Amino acid sequence: MRTNPDVLIIGGGLAGLASALHLSKKGLKVVLIEKNTFPKHKVCGEYISNEILPYLLWLDVDVAKLHPTNISNFEFTAQNGKTAKTKLPLGGFGISRYELDYFLFQKAVEKGCTILTETVTHISFQNDIFTVNTSGQIFTAKIVLGAYGKRSNIDQILSRDFISKKSPWLAVKGHYNGNFDESLVALYNFQGGYCGVSKVENDVINICYLADFETFKKYKNIEEYQKSVLYKNKKLKAIFENSTSLFEKPLTISQISFDKKEPVENHILMIGDTAGLIHPMCGNGMAMAIHSAKIASELVLDFYLGKIESRSELEKKYIQEWKKHFSKRLFFGRILAKALTYKNFTHAVTTIAASIPSLLSFIVKQTHGRPITVE
Fold first, then answer.
1. Which residue segments constitute the domains of the chain, with CATH numbers given?
2. Could you tell me which of 271, 8, 286, 293 has the C-alpha nearest to residue 148?
3. Residue 174: beta bridge partners?
4. What is the C-alpha to C-alpha distance for residues 362 and 65, in angstroms, rounded to an integer?
5. Between 372 and 11, where is the model more confident?
6. How many C-beta atoms surround the C-beta of residue 183 within 10 A?
7. Pair type for strands 138-141 and 2-3
8. Which residue has better confidence, 333 or 140?
9. Cα–Cα distance measured from residue 327 to residue 369, given in angstroms and rounded to the nearest whole number
10. Exposure b/e, 248-265, CB count within 10 A at least 16 = b
């Protein structure tokens, strides 16, 4: 069976669903292929900056209906217990990917987007047309958006540079019952990584951490690793010991790469984590993913309206816009994350930031954007 949408989107995370909703709302025929069913938990910090709210409202996505937590404060705690605090410049909210992705999925379907649960097995581009194969169907489309996340078999199909390199990072996420300030998103440093903690809907605590795999593999399991490594940060230890897990076992994802990725590969416009992944310690990947969907969708619409006259112009404009909005954030995130692997440096910076809150505020602003305007 062959299907011919105007736009085919591979991946149903935040970026894929937001672009599907945007393009469907504007009347294009959109097919989105996602290998997993909805709803589904994902490894994610689940804090999102308010900079994205105007765009979500334009998409008719009223996240208030999901009862997120309102987050206004940020704190960073070094392994030695020293803590620096600041107000978030725009504030944000805590919402689980389980709820938010499913909400976007439902909205996209309402607007006429076709969403299929399948796995992409091959992609080719010839005579200005994409051919995308799954196990059961063949699709042809003028435009393909890549929104399949941090890493995938599709990266191997496309021979992307980063996929051939081993990455030292492992991420672990769980939901918990317990006491935690719902106005706060906190980051706790430990040897070889850092852990984000904040509340999402229904008074649930989300705990998500990034760990160095070389350190992690020395231990038998996640529980032993947490007690031996994470618990050296006394504040983090107290959170774990006074919380009850809501998951049978934590979610994990390995081989997370923060290497530079190209926003256009084989003529596919990459969005969200597929185009570039910011370190979780920078705490704004969800907003960036949704913003990238807006940028790509607006340019694709201009392409179909004839305002952008060629594919090469479309790709050039998307690369320019991606770099304009995100390259500085990604670069700063990589530098900061590298610096924070040095214990003495981290302790020194935290001590200074504790007495000069404006320093921490400056660091936060480098990884956050301004409120997104919608015309």
1. 2-165+257-366 (3.50.50.60)
2. 271
3. 207
4. 32
5. 11
6. 15
7. parallel
8. 140
9. 12
10. eebbebeebbbeebbbbb
